Amino acid sequence: MSATAPNLDRSRASKLWTWLVDAEGSTRTYALLRVGTVCLCWAEWAEAFIGTHGYSTDRLLTAMGLQLCGFLTLIGLYTRVASALFALTTLALYYYWGHYKGVEAYIHHHSWLMVAFSVFVALAPAGRSYSVDRWLALHRGGTPREKLAERGPLWPLRLVAFQISAVYFWGAYDKLQPGFLSGVRMQHHFMRFFWGSDYPQWSGFPLLAQVAAIGTILVEFGLAFLLFVPRLQLPCIIVAVLFHWGLYETLPVGPFTLSVYLGLLAFVDPNVVHRIIDTLGAPVGPSQPSQPNQPNER
Amino acid sequence: MPLARTITRTFLFFSLLLWTWGGPFAKQVLHRRWPYAQQWVMFSGASLDVCAVRFTERAEDGTETPVDRWEAAGKDRWDVTHTQRVIPDADAATAAGRRLCKSLPRGTDLRVYARCATRTGWSRVLKGESNVCSK
Asked: Do A179 and B51 touch (CB under 8 A)?
């Protein structure tokens, strides 16, 4: 018994190491993240860098990075280089424009998620699926088989997952304060964002606020860990989707909800994502345009 | 897998993990600001600009009756935006009381009670010490 215990530990550690750093799988999740991240970044930031807002070297460089490299990353052309430059641009938005130049719009929580995702996508073989690069490789011929396979290392995807886990863990950790645990901070949020300054007269209001506060902490701590447990992933993702939908409807969280939805993809086994997409795209029979002379079947 | 690739992957993986987890750890555990990463203190500084305000009409014998500011002004609270429903501080609460005076009979003794939000709870800022309609 005592002899097998260290072996078991070593085997577990080895499995964990493989899962973290060495594992490989389908690259379709990366493609979804690639497209989603560019769309989010454009929706949030591109308008501020159009020509009518002025010209300066830093503005032009950022605009080129966002728009040109963003476009190439979106369609997956020269994906490796384009996504690396796009990631550098988003880093510049956060650190240079946000922290150095003091533009608050670039240092929000969702801004960080977009920056982190673009960095992780740049480190992944995100052009191996759903990309012009792949289309060209398939049509040119002569590309080595291993380069055509929609497979690649999964460690950047693990980083996306750990980033989402960090959001939940540290979000919950920060709430472990008397003001939040008592429900009073929830009362503040409810009155500030919805109800107004007339303190609600319902007798259950303080209790309801406290239940909501403790519930929020439990959900966040739970999601931080349980999303990694394969058996619990589906219910956890459903809870996360509902939780963030609720936040979107009640608080000014902006694209944070969509950013987290995108990040939740990282918890789903990429091979499962691959199979689901295969199933969705599977032919169900000959697709022929309806004949104008034939009566519709009812 | 070649050793060099394993080392590069491992280095990048743990560096980036530190990049994403280091900021909140520094801020929330070590209580040091680390500006290189998000700290995930979401909404901890929000909603500190709201007060719970109560208006009462004081009779000569000292008894007080609550005044519904919306009913007195002939408005529906849901017809205005949520920012118009919010009174952010003591001065705004007093100003809201003075506006309310215009909708009340002349000579009304109107008192304002306000508790404003802090990170730890509510802080009482107005205790109805004076008649806001008399000024």
From this structure: no
